Amino acid sequence: MPGFEEGVAIGELLAALPAPRREAFVLTQLLGLTYPEAATVAQCPVGTIRSRVARARETLIAQLTSDEEQPADPEPAEAARNGALRSPAMVVAVA
Q1: pTM of the full predicted structure?
Q2: For 42-76, what is each residue's pLDDT tens digit?
Q3: Which of 8, 43, 17 is nearest to 25 (CA)?
Q4: At residue 7, does pLDDT exceed 90?
Q5: 76: which residues sit within 8 A by CB, 6+ positions away?
Q6: What is the DSSP string of 11-25?
Q7: Please, what's the b/e burial string for 63-92 (b: 16 or more CB within 10 A of its CB; e: otherwise)?
């Protein structure tokens, strides 16, 4: 199980996905529905679910790869001292 920080990071990554792709990814990869079950829930063809999941995976991999290439953000306390603002997703998750 991921810790709090990992959970926040996962939430931010998923929030960046377009809603249809996020729905398909969550239904199949996180909730464990089969593609036909997810298609029923999403009220779309199975092929559409497959496509959305594949594109969601591509987007998530690209986001993770680009995050690894960038220098890490300063610690939250240091960022606050330097005047950096938290993202709205972080504020909601912390509040």
Answers
A1: 0.66
A2: 999 999 999 999 999 999 999 989 866 665 555 55
A3: 17
A4: no
A5: 86
A6: HHHHHTS-HHHHHHH
A7: eeeeeeeeeeeeeeeeeeeeeeeeeeeeee
The tokens for 14 are 């998923």
Closest CA to 9 of 63, 74, 85: 63
The token pair at 90 is 């972080």
CA 32 to each of CA 3, 29, 42, 71, 75: distance values in angstroms, whole numbers, following the listed order: 21, 6, 14, 34, 35
Look over the chain and give the mean of its residue pLDDT values, rounded to a whole number: 80
Question: CA 72 to CA 25: how far, in whole Å?
Answer: 27
CA 57 to chain centre: 10
Identity (one letter) of the amino acid at 74?
P
Neighbours of 16 (CB within 10 A): 12
Q: What is the pLDDT of residue 2?
A: 62
Contact 91, 11 (CB under 8 A): no
